[in-house]
Specification:
The complex is a heterodimer of chains A (294) and B (327).
Chain A lengths: L1 H36 L6 H17 L4 H27 L5 H24 L13 E4 L2 E4 H23 L1 H11 L1 H6 L4 H23 L9 H16 L4 H21 L5 H15 L12
Antiparallel strand pairs in A: 1-2
Helix pairs in contact in A: 1-5, 1-8, 1-9, 1-10, 2-3, 2-4, 2-8, 2-9, 3-8, 5-6, 9-10, 9-11, 10-11
Chain B lengths: L3 H27 L3 H26 L7 H18 L3 H23 L4 H20 L17 E4 L2 E4 L3 H24 L1 H18 L5 H26 L9 H14 L6 H17 L5 H15 L3 H16 L4
Antiparallel strand pairs in B: 1-2
Helix pairs in contact in B: 1-6, 1-12, 2-6, 2-8, 2-9, 2-10, 3-4, 3-8, 4-8, 6-8, 9-10, 9-12
The chains are: A mainly alpha (294), B mainly alpha (327).
């Protein structure tokens, strides 16, 4: 019993956690963008892919992986900012902007995905892990990179939480989400807050892309497979809720990795979606409310 | 015809009907295969887009998983044709009845949610179904099912060979046309008015004394039937089905088609499908990257003309109307 826990479950749990942390990063971006702008960013997966591709190119130019972790999100911020200002703002005043922004970001996703095929080709690229080797923990060997991923990701998630709930900047974002007219009359540049928040969310997706590139391969449709998981996490956790994204992210990735011990891995995705559908049926707004209620 | 939107719809209807008949006559005369089959395919996917428009444009529900019903219809039709009997009417009948049941069951899951949640739950449902089909060996798994027989379709004028591109184009046109007529009929009923009311303001509907739930469910089931019957035509044209038919790209393309053609017009999506399909095959001859072009066009349409081609036409008619000082 104890042995199976040690040798079968523990590695699977750690693997699930390392992926879970990256999923949570993606989901945080999605949920923050939704919480503030009410926009479902269908191109979020493509920005995750953007992060991975840019890091591949930067590393090919001799930039170290560690610098990429800093550079890639910084590079994505102006792109996200421009996209919000030039495209999303254009349809923001329509009554059915929920749907229009969803369609708009879907179109952007199509363009980006095909763009990656043109620039980087359709074949998967596999960057080597920046940390090699494995260390022993409780008598089981774990790859060092995955351990790093867990710790680093957890740090970022904590920083995002602290940024939103413990700083003045975060208070501005929450105020804009709560009541944009009132915030605007208090002198908050709401439009700029919108654009910057969108850019921030996109940068988080890019960071997840850099982090996961050495684990999965990098290919143009990589965002599409991953976004499904991120969407399920955001829905189960409750759109706009940071706490929900973290809890649901860990739970769902654990469900996926532990269930794959018992059932064929191809069935673990349907299982995750089934859980998502069940949660939506029982509690249509997800486990936790939005950022506005926090 | 005071309403510019009605005028735009009528114009698109006439344009599509005449170009279809012209294509049929010229195509059959020249013995063409390529264009007739391309047009047939665009009508089939037009039917799918029409079902998306029924939900999005009429009731105000964005479905991101309509390919689920399309793929269901395609697989079921292929199964019936292969295993039971190669009969057009049997396949269509079985698909219609089963899609009513499927739509009814799915409506209990999907209609519990609204707005973006509805979009995401339909997306999730379709993904689950696609993965299940993709991994089910008895349905051919990732290869799909091949070898659907070429049909001999009974008509009052004798049997028609569906292998003939012209004949099957006509059959498809009649089928999609019938679906369009059914939806148009529903719009004239009181239920049609309630659908429009739901789209305008669902909460206020209760104050007027109507329940939104029933009519929404009917619309959802109807959309499932339209998508499934359109899907049922697919294996008859192609001779095979594959799990790709259920993938998100199919649902997504249908939404693009609807927005391009004109949301809420039902006929706009057919026009959009004809345009997109021909566009894809034209671009396809000189680049494989047609998505980037379609994506760009789509983004431009959403930003500058969110009501699509039909919306532009209606705007034009509205202008000429007011130019004459109104009719």
């Amino acid at each position: 019993m104890l042995e199976s826990l040690q040798y079968i479950y523990a590695p699977q749990i750690v693997n699930g956690l390392s992926i879970g942390v990256a999923v949570v990063l993606m989901a945080l971006g999605l949920t923050i963008i939704f919480g503030l702008l009410d926009v479902i960013n269908m191109s979020h997966g493509e920005f995750y892919a953007a992060g991975a591709f840019i890091s591949v190119s930067l590393m090919a130019m001799g930039v170290s992986f560690w610098l990429c972790l800093l550079l890639v999100p910084l590079l994505l911020i102006p792109i996200g900012f421009a996209m919000e200002r030039l495209l999303i703002q254009k349809v923001f005043h329509y009554k059915d902007r929920h749907i229009l922004t969803l369609l708009l970001t879907f179109g952007v996703a199509m363009v980006l995905e095909d763009g990656y095929k043109i620039v980087w080709g359709a074949n998967p690229i596999k960057p080597s892990a920046p940390i090699s080797g494995a260390s022993e923990l409780l008598g089981v060997m774990f790859p060092n990179y995955r351990l790093f991923l867990m710790v680093f990701g957890a740090l970022i998630i904590f920083s995002v939480w602290a940024l939103i709930y413990k700083t003045q900047l975060g208070a501005i974002v929450r105020a804009s989400a709560y009541d944009k007219d009132m915030s605007s009359s208090l002198g908050i540049p709401v439009m700029r807050v919108y654009a910057l928040t969108f850019a921030f969310g996109v940068a988080l997706a890019g960071l997840a892309g850099v982090l996961l590139a050495p684990i999965y391969s990098v290919f143009p449709t990589m965002g599409r497979d991953f976004i499904l998981m991120a969407f399920s996490v955001v829905i189960v956790g409750g759109l706009g809720s940071i706490k929900g994204a973290v809890i649901a992210g860990i739970l769902l990735t654990q469900l996926q990795s532990i269930s794959s011990l018992f059932i064929s891995p191809v069935w673990s995705d349907p299982l995750v979606f089934t859980v998502m559908v069940l949660v939506l049926m029982l509690k249509p707004t997800g486990l936790y409310g939005g950022m506005k209620n926090a | 015809m005071h309403n510019p939107q009605v005028k735009a719809i009528r114009l698109i209807e006439i344009f599509l009907l005449f170009s279809a008949l012209a294509l049929f006559v010229i195509g059959s005369f020249l013995g063409d295969t390529f264009f007739l089959r391309l047009a047939t395919e665009s009508l089939i996917f037009g039917g799918l887009a029409m079902s998306v428009d029924l939900l999005l444009g009429i009731v105000g529900l964005l479905s991101l998983g309509q390919a689920l019903y399309f793929g269901f219809g395609a697989y079921l039709s292929a199964l019936v044709l292969k295993e039971i009997s190669p009969s057009f009417f049997l396949a269509i009948g079985v698909v219609t009845l089963s899609s009513i049941v499927l739509g009814w069951v799915a409506s209990f899951i999907a209609l519990r949610s609204k707005g973006v949640y509805f979009a995401l739950i339909t997306f999730g449902l379709a993904q689950v179904a696609a993965k299940v089909v993709y991994n089910t060996r008895s349905l051919g798994a990732s290869d799909g099912m091949m070898g659907v027989p070429v049909l001999q379709i009974w008509t009052p004028f004798g049997f028609v060979d569906a292998g003939q591109p012209g004949a099957f184009f006509l059959i498809t046109m009649l089928t999609i046309g019938a679906l369009y007529a059914v939806l148009k009929y529903f719009l004239t009923t009181p239920m049609g008015s309630i659908w429009h009311a739901i789209r305008s303001n669902e909460n206020r509907l209760a104050y007027v004394g109507y329940k939104a739930k029933g009519p929404k469910q009917v619309a959802f089931i109807l959309a499932a039937v339209v998508a499934a019957v359109s899907g049922a035509l697919y294996p008859m044209l192609r001779g095979f089905v594959s799990p790709e038919l259920m993938f998100f790209s199919v649902s997504g393309n249908a939404v693009v088609t609807v927005v391009l053609g004109g949301v809420g017009t039902l006929i706009g999506p057919i026009l959009g499908s004809v345009l997109l399909t021909s566009f894809k095959s034209i671009i396809g001859t000189w680049t494989v990257h047609h998505h980037i072009v379609i994506g760009l066009i789509f983004v431009v349409v959403v930003v500058s003309a969110p009501k699509g081609i039909a919306g532009l036409l209606a705007k034009y008619f509205g202008k000429t109307n007011s130019g004459k000082g109104g009719e």
